[in-house]
Design brief:
With 420 residues, the protein is an alpha/beta fold. The chain contains 13 helices and 18 strands. β12 and β13 form a beta hairpin. The longest helix is centred in the first third of the chain and has 20 residues. Bound molecules: NADPH dihydro-nicotinamide-adenine-dinucleotide phosphate, 2-oxoglutaric acid (AKG) and magnesium ion (MG). This is Isocitrate dehydrogenase [NADP].
Length: 420
């Protein structure tokens, strides 16, 4: 029996076929988590914009039945102190296949571990998919932001996010340091008495399933290249192995052939015969090259921490994390969420850009096959930005802009749907 989740009347669950395709009823139930901080601002605006787009495209024939589920601070208010992630929330995300969430707070240092990471790990949402595209008219710190057109595939289940960490001075840290020194000959821990330790698991299976999705995406969307981003010169057996396993998979499963003896390789698009280049770049060099020569990069496959950094850095080039959407996906379950966090200083002020949450919902609609509604949202976003009625983040950099609130921007988008 659900404790605090109420299934909306008249809605039906989305289901998954054996080949992982979706059966989407015309009246699907979609769970949403409002989110902490600015979640209270952006999530209601996102719901309103999506409802307006769906109504405009399909009339009464289709409607999303939203079902609120809880995590984070709101969960502790609804379920009681200490209940940050109720089991029925995880179950609902799994059972309903497609869902969307607002940002959740993670304290720095002590306190609870990331609830965002918990959701990804508990549901094995191993792909973090973050497309980065430029909307005409958006203020950008770079000269040619329209050249940024990348899709990040961030490994979402491993790496330093596995949460295997030991606090400096704790018994476990002491034990592990002793083991590393005595059993494994690790003599280079500079200050053993005061070191905290973190462990970074990176597996072949985890790498292969992520890279497989990235290459398949390049094929399905006719992209020219897949770039593996890693720090394998320093972390040889985690990030270096990620690179090697990625190239091996491209050759083994997609027939890629080494260029001039490798490691770069090329595969042929199975239908068009066009070349798709598979290459790699060390992460620090990559961060400067995406600013200097963004047109050289298309699909990016990378590890969890690199992907986190790259997401925000690339978002900045096309206007910031106010319009940076994303999804966390397994083969069957997909949970959509903005790239940004809870931006606590703006919480509850109806101030921030709801664009990331709305564009995450656009990705969700496209994933469901509701392409018309997704297209309408994109068009309304473009028109809203061109009308220069924008939230503070764009207004502060845009000549002649009228600053509107978070809900005000949602309304501008809905108004633009009339003429889109
Ligand atoms: N998936 C998730 O749920 C995520 C959660 N978090 C969590 O969020 C909390 C806060 O993290 P923090 O590092 O401050 O990062 P945030 O992404 O929350 O905010 C950083 C800055 O980004 C800008 N920003 C963020 N959202 C928007 C928006 N919608 N519109 C316009 N500008 C925006 C603001 O810039 P400015 O000050 O210039 O106006 C803000 O101060 C932490 O607890 C963190 O763990 C972080 C990332 C993802
Ligand atoms: O879990 C968090 O609090 C931060 C996550 C994050 O920054 C991200 O997923 O981009
Ligand atoms: Mg991040």
């Amino acid at each position: 029996m659900p404790q605090h989740i109420t299934a909306p009347e008249g809605g039906r669950k989305i289901t998954v076929n054996a080949d992982f395709s979706l059966n989407v009823p015309d009246h699907p139930i979609i769970p949403f988590i409002e989110g902490d901080g600015i979640g209270v601002d952006v999530t209601p605006v996102m719901l309103r914009v999506v409802d307006a787009a769906v109504a405009r495209c399909y009339g009464n024939a289709r409607k999303i039945h939203w079902m609120e589920i809880y995590a984070g601070e709101k969960s502790t208010r609804v379920y009681g102190p200490g209940v940050w992630m109720p089991p029925e929330t995880l179950q609902a995300v799994k059972d309903h296949v497609v869902s969307i969430k607002g940002p959740l707070t993670t304290p720095v240092g002590g306190g609870i571990r990331s609830l965002n990471v918990t959701l990804r790990q508990e549901l094995d949402l191993y792909v973090c998919l973050r497309p980065v595209q430029y909307f005409q008219g958006v203020p950008s710190p770079v000269k040619e932001p329209h050249k940024v057109d990348m899709v990040i595939f961030r490994e979402n289940s491993e790496d330093i996010y596995a949460g295997i960490e030991y606090e400096a001075g704790s018994d476990n840290a002491k034990k592990l340091i002793q083991f590393l020194r005595d059993e494994l000959g690790a003599g280079k821990i500079r200050f053993p008495e005061s070191s905290g330790l973190g462990i970074k698991p990176v597996s072949r299976e985890g790498t292969e399933r992520l890279v497989r999705k990235a290459i398949q995406y390049a094929i399905d969307h006719n992209k020219p290249s897949v770039t593996i981003v890693h720090k394998g010169n320093i972390m040889k057996f985690t990030e270096g192995a990620f690179r090697d396993w990625a190239y091996a998979l491209a050759q083994k499963e997609f027939g890629a052939e080494p260029i001039d003896g490798g490691p770069w390789c090329r595969l042929r698009h199975p239908r068009t015969g066009k070349e798709i280049l598979v290459k790699d770049v060390i992460a620090d060099a990559f961060l400067q090259q995406i600013i200097l020569r963004p047109a050289e990069y298309s699909v990016i496959a990378t590890l969890n921490l690199n992907g986190d950094y790259i997401s925000d850095a690339l978002a900045a080039q096309v206007g910031g994390i106010g319009i940076a959407p994303g999804a966390n996906m397994s083969d069957s379950v997909a949970m959509f969420e903005a790239t940004h966090g809870t931006a606590p200083k703006y919480a509850g002020k109806d101030y921030v850009n709801p664009g990331s949450a709305i564009l995450s919902a656009e990705m969700m609609l496209r994933h469901m096959g509701w392409t018309e509604a997704a297209d309408l949202i994109l068009r309304a976003m473009e028109l809203a930005i061109l009308s220069k009625k924008v939230t503070y983040d764009f207004a502060r950099l845009m000549d002649g802009a009228t600053q509107v609130s978070c809900s005000g921007f949602g309304q501008v988008m809905i108004d633009q749907m009339e003429i889109a």
